[in-house]
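anyone seen this seq b4? input:
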Amino acid sequence: MTLSKVTGMVTLLRRVFWLVALSGGAFAAWTVWNRRNSALPTSPPEWPPIEPLVRAAPDATANATTVSSTGDAPTFAAPPTDDAQPTAVSGTSPAAAPVAPPVTAVGTEPLMWVAPDGGSCPDSHPIKANDNSGIYHVPGGRFYNRTGAERCYALADDAEADGYRRAKN
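predicted toks r here
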């Protein structure tokens, strides 16, 4: 190759480099301009409310469902009622007798979580869960007092069943 050919190729490569660099800069400026001038939403997005989850009753006969032929929501059969008071188990006092948990709706167990009152959890559900981080905090934890609860759980297992993980503290 002669010196003139090498010089011509170097000049061509320089011109191609500058053409690509200027094109990239022009595209970046055009993108920034369009983003600055795009219409912003006037209001924040509205999300549907989060419904509390309920646990299904372990007894299949107490949770018999029937679906009507019209496609309506399933209806639950009433659980068997027992008006008798719980009796003491042998070797225990009447105060320590096993009592069925309170029922919130026909055929279901108590709610797994409750909504907090002003960011603090009731004494019956002391575990604080945060939806943004997906973490739950137990009483006595490092950040428990600083955490604003979005859900309150009675048991750590319930929080983990809803997809939260325990805080690392």
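Residues 118 and 148 are 8 Å apart (CA to CA). The longest strand covers residues 108-111. kinda curious what u guys think
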